[in-house]
Design a protein that fits this description.
The complex is a heterotrimer of chains A (about 350), B (about 750) and C (about 160). By secondary structure, chain B is an alpha+beta fold. Chain B is about 25% helix and about 25% strand. Chain B has 16 helices and 28 strands. In chain B, the strands form six sheets. In chain B, strands 3-5-1-12-9-10-11 form a seven-stranded mixed sheet, sandwiched between helices. The longest helix of chain B is centred in the C-terminal third of the chain and has 26 residues, at about 515-540. Helix content of chain C is about 35%, strand content about 15%. Chain C contains six helices and seven strands. Classes of the chains: A alpha+beta (about 350), B alpha+beta (about 750), C alpha+beta (about 160). Chains in contact: A-B, A-C, B-C. At the B-C interface, helix 1, helix 3 and helix 14 of B face helix 1, helix 2, helix 3, helix 4 and helix 5 of C.
Amino acid sequence: MKRFEFIQPTSLDEALAAWEPGAAWLGGGTNLVDLMKTGAMQPVKVIDITRLPGLAEIETLAEGGVRIGALVRNSDLANDADIASRFPMVSEALLAGASGQLRNAATVGGNLMQRTRCAYFQDPQAACNRRDPGAGCDAREAGAGQAVLGWSEICIATNPSDFCVPLAALDAIVEVRGPDGAREIPMAEFHLLPGDTPERETALSPGELIVALRLPPEAEGFAANARYLKVRDRTSYAFAMTSAAAALRIENGRIAEARLALGAVAATPWRVTEAEALLAGQTPDAALFARAAEAALAGATPSGDNAWKIDLARRTAIRALEMAAAGTPAQMPALPASPFGSTAGDLAHA
Amino acid sequence: MPDTLDPHIRFGSNSGQPATRRDGVAKVTGTATFAADNTPEGLLYAVFAPAAIARGRVTSLDTAAAEAHPGVTHVLTPQNRPPLQGDPSDKPTMFSFRFEALQDDTVRYAEQPIALVVGETLEAATEGARLLSPHYETEKPRVGIDDAEPYGFEADAFGKPANTVHGDPDAGHGSAATSLDVTYETAPQYHNAMETHAVVATWDGDHLTLDMPSQALSMSCAGFAHYFGIPAENVTVRSPYLGGGFGSKAIPTGPYVLAILAARMTGRPVKMMLTRQQMFGPVGHRGQTRQRLRLGADADGKLTVIDHEGISATSTFDTFIEPAANASQGIYAAGALRSTHRAVALDVGTPGPMRAPGEASGSAALECAMDEMAEALGMDPLDFRLKNYAETEPGTGKPYSSKALRECYAQGAERFGWAKRPLQPGQMRDEHGHLVGWGMGTAFFPCPMFMADARAALRADGTALFETSAADMGQGAWTSLAQIAADSLGLPLDKVEFRAGHSGLPDGGVAGGSGHTATAGNALHTAGGDVVRQLGEIAAADPASSLHGAGNASFVARDGRLYIDGDDSRSDAFADILSRLGNAEIAGSGSASRDPDMAKQYAMNAHGAVFAEVRIDPDLCQMRVTRLVGAFAAGRIINPRLAESQLFGGMIWGISFALHEEARHDPRRGHIVNSDLAGYHVPVNADVHGLEVISVHEDDPHVNALGIKGVGEIGITGTVGAIGNAIWHASGKRIRRFPIRVEDLIRE
Amino acid sequence: MSPSISLTLNGAKRDVALDDPRVTLLDLLRERLALPGTKKGCDRGQCGACTVLVNGRRVNSCLTLAATLDGAEITTIEGLAAGDDLHPVQAAFIENDAFQCGYCTPGQIMSAVGLIAEDRAGEDLERIREGMSGNICRCAAYHGITLAVRQATRGSAGIKKDDAA
C-alpha cells in the first residue's frame, strides 16, 4: 500500500476543508482499503469521515419518505424494522450483498461509491481506462464480457452494488455537501455510463461528499409488492451475475404503477422506464412480464463472450416481477433472494 | 506379517471411539500456533514481487524506488541473489520439482517470483515489492489446453503416470453392441488452503529452523538441506499445525527458498506469508484435463472395454501429469481396459498433487461416461454398475484385500431412496417448480502406505510418550494417532502424551495419499508393541512378577497391565514391573510400510457410493445440491467423528469441483484473472445441505496390521460425477465440462 | 501523521503507538500486539478468517485501518474464553467437530458470536448457513459449523477447557 496522510476530522466543515486532489473519503473501508491494497487506488490522503457527527441517523420525514445518513452501516439499515416494512426491497438487496461482517462495516454512502469489481480495474498491471484514462481496456480485449447495456468500447465494467438497484427503482435522492455548498442528485443521474470518460463514475464533483440518501414518499407505495432478486453462481457471498428490483403498486388487480431496475448489467444500476410504462395499467400475468422484460433488454448487446447474460437478465427481470406480483413475504427481510431461499419441500413427480 | 497378526486381539478401546480433537481447545482459543503466528525477536518481513505475465522476460525493475522506501532493507533480484548450493532444477527427494528462485530473468508463469523485498515491517516490504514496477518483454502465452501440442512421455518419475493396457481394447470396441465416445474437460484448480504458504526462517550458524506448514517434515529437511548445502540434520522443521494442505504443502517451493536465503543473507529471522493471489502459481495446482472416454458394452450391458485417454496440462519446465485416466483401471469389470496419458506444456506453474490427484478428475469423467452408457443401454445407472461389479481387480485379476462396495451401493441407495428414481430425465419437480434430478457415482481410492518410524516410552508413572513427526493438516492426526498409540500399550487416551509436527522426531512420513493414519499409525502401533515385548521379557525374567517364567508366551497390554495372551489369570501392572526396575522408563521403536508380499497378492482400495440430488431453477438455471449421501468402506475407522468430517469435506470438494472451481486465464497476458477468493469460488456454508455419510463396516486383514485404509480423499471421487449426472437427470442437459455453470445450462 | 490510538483490547485498556497509518487491525494484532489468534486468509475481505468484534460487531479486521479505531473495544479469539471456561460457541465447535485444520476457526467463532448477538438467525439452519457464509472453510467443516452455531444459540453452560478436550 502506498503511504498516505491520515486525518480524522470531527466536523463536516473540517472534513470538506481537508479535501485536496488525490484525497479519498474513508467510510467503512471495505472497498477503499481493498483497492489500496491491490494498488488500484492510491490516495495521498485518507480522510476518515466516520467521526463526523449526525451522519448515521435514519429519520422518517414529516412529508413522508425517509432520510438515511451516509454513515449508516449497511446492516443497520437492512435490519431496521421500519425500513424493512416500508421499503422491503431495500432491505432485501442489502442482505443479498457481501457478508455479515462486510455489511457491519460498509456504509450507505460507501455503497453508492462502490467501484466496479472488474478484475482488470482492480489489477494495476492491467490496462484500464477507468483507472487510468487512455490506457486501454484489457477486459474488452480479453473478450471477458461484463456489461450488456450502456457500455462503450472504452469500458465494459458493471456496477456491483445490490443496494443501488432498488434505490434506482425507487427514485432515491442523494444529498451531497461540497466546497460549494449542498446539492441533491437524483439517483438516476448519480452514476454515469462510461462513454468516453469512464473515469467519471458519478455526478459528484471533486471534494463533494455524500451526506445522506432520501427515499421519497412515493417509494412507500410499493411495500406490498416489491422484491429484489439476485442470481449468482454460489448461494451467498458472491457478486450478482444479474439482479433485478421489481416493485408494483397494484390497485384492484391492475398495476397502477411499476418500477423495474436491473443490476450487474451496466456501469450504473439500470432503470428501465420503458418496461415500467408497458406494465402500467395492465393486469399482471406471465405474458405481460415477458413483454416487459423483453423491452427492458431491448438494447442489450454482449460486450464479449456474454450473450447468455442478456438472456439471464431477461429471465431475472421476469422472475422478479412474478415475485413482486406474488407479494412481499411476511417475514422481511426474507432470506437472500435466491430462488432457493426457502426450504425446498417434498418432491412432486410431474 | 499382517496376515499372522489378528488386529483385534491387540486392539484396545480407544480406536473406534469418536473422541473430540485433542487440539480442539488450542484451535478454538486461538492458541494453536500456525507458521506465520511466530514473531521471533529481530524479525524481518519478506514479500516477493510476482510476475504479471505468464511468458517472457523481465526487462526492468525499479530497485532504487523499492530500496528508497522507508523500512525496506534489501531487494533481491536475479542480479544480486546470493547463490544456492543446490540447483533449483535438482531433485533431492522423490517429490521434488524445479522451482523458480530468481535464477534468471525468464518468466515461465504468472505469479512467479521475480524479485524479493525485505523490510522491517510487513507494510514496508509489501510496498517495496509494488514499487519495483516491473517491465516485461512479453511473448504470447500458452495457457489453454489447445495452445500446445500434446506429447507422450516416459513414466520414469513421480508425476509421470504410466500408460496401462489390460486385455484387447480394440477387440472390446469391435465386439461392443453399444458404443460411447465422449470427451470431458476439467478446469485448472488451485488448492487454496485457508492458510497461505508461510515460513519463518531462522539461521543459527549453519543450522536452519523453519516454522512452516509441512505435510512431509523429514523430506522437507532433506530438500532444503540440499539447496542450502547443509546436512539434513541441521534443518529443523516445526509444523505443529497446518492450515490446510491438500497436497500443496509437501514440496519445497521457490518462495520458501527465497525467504530462507533472505534470512541467511541478513542474519535475521525472516517471515514470508504468501498473499492469496500468490497462491495461484508457484505452489502447485491441479492441472486442467481433457479426457476422451470410449466405452463399449454388449447387449447384456456388460462392459467390453473402457478406453480412457487423458491429456493433462503441465508447465514448460517440469512435469506433473494429473493421472486422470488411471481412474478407470481399478473399478469396473470391463473386458479390456486402456488408460493413456499425454501432456500439454503450458505457461503455468507446475501442477502437483491436489486432493485425489487423478482420481478426482478421472472419476468425474468416468462416472459421467458410465451414466451416459447406462442411459444408452436404457439401464438404471446403479444396476449398470452392479452388472459390471469387479469381484477381483480388473486387468490383474488379483483378489481385493477387502471390498464392501456392494454394501456401499446398497446402503447408500436405501438411505437415498434411489429405487424411486425415474429412468428418464426431467421427470421430477419440487413444489417450487424446480427441476429435481438424482445421480450417482462410484467412489474409489487406493490405500497406499509410505514409510514411517515412531518411538514409544512407557514411564514409571504409568503414562506413555509417543513420538513421530506426523503432520496434522486437519485430518486429525493429533487425535487419531494418539488413539492408536494408546491402544498399543493398553492405556486410556489421557495417559498418552503424543508429540508430532517436529522434524526432530522419528520420521512420520508423508501426510498424503490418504495414507498417513495407516502409515504413522502402524509405526506407533509397532513401537508400542516393542515396549510390550520388552515389558514381557522383563516380567518373565523377574521372580517377583506373577508373569515370571512365561518367557515363551506372548503378552497383551490392557488397562495398564500386562497379561499373558489368552490367560487372564496371570497379569502384572506396568507400574509394578517398572518400579521393580527402579522406576526406569522402557523405550521402544517401530516402523511401518506396506508389506510387499501383501501388495503382490492383493489389490487394495477404499470404495464408496455417492448419491446426489440437485435442484435447478428451470428459468434462472441456478443449481443447488440439496442432498448428498455417501456410503464408504475404508477399512478400520479409528475415529468416526473425524472420519465423517473428512468424508464430508471430500464430498464438499466434490460440490466445489462440479459447480465452482475454475482458474480462468487471460488469453493475452496469461495470468489468472480470478486469482482471489471473490473470483475463484469454493462453496460457502449456504451451499452445503443435506449431507449424509454412511460408514460401511469393513475388516481388512491384509492392508496393514491395523486394517486402516484412509478417508482423506475418497469423498471427492464419485461425488463430482454424481452431481453431473444429477444435473442431467434434472434437466436433460449433459454438460461435459467441469465446473458446470449457470451459463452452460442457459446456452444449451 | 503518527496517530496513537487507545483501545480496549479483550477487556484491557491499551495505548498503541502507530508509526504507520497503513497498518490494518489484522496486522496490528498479529505482528505488533502478539495476538496471532486472528488469522489472515485473503487479506481482502473475501474469506472471513480475520473476523473480530469491534464494539461488539463482527467485522473483517483485514479491511479495517487500525488508525480509525481510537477508543474502540475489540474482542479477538484470545479474549473469548473466561479463564478456563470456554465460551459456549467455542465448546460447541469442539463438540460438533466444526473445524479440521483450525485455521479459519477463530474467524468462524468470532463470526458466530457476532451472528448470535445480531439475533437474526435464531435456530433456523438455513439462516445460520446464510449468516455464516462470510467465513470460508476450505476443509469444508460447514456441517459441524452450522450445528455448532445452532447449539450455541440454544445456549449452553460454559464448559471447562479440560472437559472439552
